[in-house]
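FIELD: query
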Amino acid sequence: MGYAEKFRRYLVEDGKSPSTITSYVGDVEGFLCYLEYKGGQFDGQLRRFYVTSYKQHLVFAFSLD
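FIELD: result
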């Protein structure tokens, strides 16, 4: 079971609404896809570099709209 699925199960158990679960899990899946695309691999530990790099990616991507 992957990290996104584990997170989804946690959110269900925590009583989050279906729309919240869909949104949060989608965000996690996007982050994991970004890391994979960049050649990184998520090992379960968030690192400042991963988060700031992904944030910059999102800011740039949304500035193109």
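FIELD: remark
The chain has one domain: 3-63.
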